[in-house]
Write a structure and sequence with these properties.
The protein is an alpha+beta fold and 658 residues long. The strands form four sheets. Strands 2, 3, 4, 5, 6, 7, 8, 9 and 10 form a nine-stranded mixed beta sheet that branches.
Length: 658
């Protein structure tokens, strides 16, 4: 979550339009610019790494590690070491073959310098040295070189050690021999360029998660990560013989599996190597991860489509063959077979065609057919060999099918066309007069008492109030058909105007700021958690669009004489008290707010609702998978994981319902 001060302009300024005379400009050959070397990357870095923010910064690590992973995929590397150095430097070492250092016939420079400083240069394009890699665009390590203020490459090869140094995409030294070595491999040390990255701060957990995933995908390869920035240095080592099976076990930790055996299938079709693994759990949500040459394709692509098609068709075929589905049941749909699914699909393909430089979606059409054929064949064989697992899986999907039909009937009853168009807004909603979503806010408040105070405190033009009675249904433990029977959730869905599930449409939203405002006690925190669970599970696009916030009412009212200050944190309280004691001899009075109802409308407006003074927390999804796991832990049916979580974090809790 991000702490922001959100201000809303109530008055519009007149738009002044001035006509400007056209300025005559020349357009000649000299006006055409030709960027040399790695200048295109430095000129437009976001085109190559997605963003110059923290995500792009971490993308550099992935590109540097990616070369070592490619060596491991081809069987030439068994160990990779990654270190976070002081001053936020990165060091990546592998025991692969080492980048060649002899003169390149085309560039007349060393092969090492050519690879590091030339776009679209590398052994991956010919298809002989690397049969399958993540490199399509050929900008991986050269992008790292271009966007680093300092980079040093060390190569152990042919009995000797060599090095070359670079800065901002240009070689600063020649390739130099600096000793002998019986080993082979490559080391890359780099420091990101502060001219490109305004904030250089590596998150070791983000890097750790990436490396752990790579170790699962490349079984038998040892990956060591060290964070050497602080005194309490951290070192982690990953090594998995089980590959995707181990990865699925990791992804389903802390939840109840529906069946004991994890499906794993692999094969090769038309030069495309496919691996897949899956397991069903008691959760309602699904988790699918897809990879092409060990690169996470977060937006899916043809290989994920092939996996889904094979899964749906194979389960239907098996169920029909073994009379588990009746004629009048209808076929299981893709939605039915996804409930509770944790699945991973990984392919190795000679020439991957990614959509976009950051490689989030695979476009190779031939991958769909290859994956579909291999997964269909191996999954049907798994079901035949494990009839108990097969029965449980089919029953799980049939239960989801029944719930889907019930949910559809419930939605048709609840979300009528007139309601969706805003013709029947809930009676408890005190709506704003503005009909422009971009300037409108919806406060979701706890209880009728707080609802009354906030209604009197608000600016009616752009602030709407929706009070909720009590604690809403825990959606982590309920299907959609049950969720839609909840009056409070129904009121919220109608007020938002977006509908829900497959009918959800973000463009229909009635407010661009949805603010959860609850009491600062344990009940208020519980209600916040329930609402966040609801938004995360069923209104995630609202969070991704940046429309969800949490109000921060003050914890304390501090007064001495006529001077009144509000403390929003414990740190604020200490600072205000110290300041008051220095100025006056009178001891300040301290009032701890536990509920919004303790504030009169003027105080509520001044401290929590006025755009000039309020502080809002913007809800963001930094790591969707970790968020998903935490919601499962805190809100799921299993008690033991929640108990462990509480025991682990109990000492960090402060101000619990003071």
């Amino acid at each position: 979550m991000t702490r922001q001060k959100i201000k809303t302009k109530k008055k519009r300024k007149k738009r002044i339009v001035q006509k400007k005379k056209k300025t005559e400009t020349t357009y000649r050959a000299k006006d055409i610019y030709v960027l040399k070397g790695l200048e295109p990357i430095r000129k437009r870095p976001a085109m190559y790494i997605g963003t110059t923010g923290l995500e792009g910064l971490h993308h550099l690590v992935c590109e540097a590690v990616g070369n070592a992973i490619d060596e491991a995929i081809m069987g030439y590397c068994s160990e990779i070491k990654v270190s976070l150095l002081p001053r936020n430097g990165i060091k990546v070492t592998d025991n692969g073959r080492g980048i060649p250092v002899e003169k390149h016939p085309q560039t007349k420079k060393s092969a090492l310098e050519t690879v590091m400083t030339t776009l679209h240069a590398g052994a991956k394009f010919g298809g002989k040295v690397y049969a399958s890699t993540g490199g399509l665009h050929g900008v991986g390590i050269s992008a790292v070189c271009a966007l680093s203020s300092f980079l040093r490459t060390e190569v152990c090869r042919s009995g000797f050690k060599y090095y070359q140094e670079y800065s901002r995409g240009k070689a600063k030294t020649k390739v130099k021999k600096f000793g002998k070595s019986k080993q082979t491999g490559t080391t890359v040390i780099f420091e990101p360029d502060p001219e490109i990255f305004k904030e250089i701060k590596f998150d070791y957990k983000k890097i750790l998660n990436y490396l752990r995933r790579q170790a699962y995908l490349t079984k038998g390869v040892k990956i060591t990560f060290s964070d050497l920035r602080a005194e309490d240095k951290k070192t982690f080592t990953f090594y998995f013989e089980g590959g995707l099976v181990s990865y699925v076990k990791h992804l389903t930790r802390g939840v109840t599996p529906r069946h004991p055996n994890i499906f794993y299938g692999s094969g090769e079709r038309n030069g495309i190597i496919t691996e897949a693994a899956l397991r069903y759990t008691s959760e309602y949500e699904s988790l699918e991860e897809s990879f092409a040459n060990n690169i996470l394709t977060s937006e899916g692509g043809s290989h994920l489509t092939g996996f889904r098609t094979a899964l749906t068709r194979t389960l239907n075929d098996y169920a029909r063959k073994n009379n588990l589905l009746r004629k009048d049941d209808g076929n299981l749909t893709g939605e039915d077979v996804k409930e509770g699914l944790t699945g991973v699909i990984s392919i190795k393909i000679r020439e991957p065609q990614f959509e976009g430089q950051t490689k989030k979606k695979l476009g190779n059409t031939e991958a769909k057919a290859a994956v579909e054929a291999i997964v269909s064949e191996t999954l049907f064989d798994f079901l035949e060999r494990n009839p108990r697992d097969a029965k449980v899986i089919i029953e799980n999907c049939m239960l989801a099918q029944k719930a889907r039909k019930a949910a559809r009937a419930a939605k048709e009853t609840v979300l009528r066309k007139g309601i969706l168009q805003g013709l029947a807004l809930p009676g408890k909603l005190a709506d704003c007069t503005s009909r422009k979503p971009e300037e409108s806010e919806l406060y979701i408040v706890e209880g009728e008492s707080a609802g009354g105070s906030s209604r009197r405190a608000r600016d009616r033009h752009f602030q709407a109030i929706l009070p909720l009675k009590g604690k809403i249904l825990n959606v982590e433990r309920a299907r959609l058909d049950k969720i839609l029977t909840s009056k409070e959730i129904k009121s919220l869905i109608i007020a938002l105007g977006t509908a829900i599930a497959e009918d959800f449409k973000l463009e229909k939203i009635r407010y661009h700021r949805i603010i959860v405002m609850c009491d600062a006690d344990s009940d208020g925190n519980h209600i916040k958690t329930l609402l966040l669970t609801l938004f995360y599970r069923y209104f995630k696009p609202i969070i991704k669009a940046g429309f969800l916030y949490i109000a921060q009412p003050p914890l304390y009212k501090i007064q001495t004489g006529k001077q009144v200050e509000y403390a929003y944190t414990e740190g604020d309280k200490v600072e205000i008290l110290s300041s008051m004691k220095e100025k006056k001899a009178v001891t300040p009075s301290l009032q701890r707010y536990k509920g919004l109802g303790e504030m009169n409308p003027e105080e509520l407006w001044e401290t929590t609702m006025s755009p000039e003074n309020r502080v809002l927390l913007k809800v963001e999804i930094e790591d969707a998978k970790e968020a998903d796991r935490i919601f499962d832990t805190l809100m799921g049916e299993e008690v033991l994981p929640r108990k462990r979580f509480i025991q682990t974090h109990a000492k960090k809790v402060k101000n619990l319902d003071i």
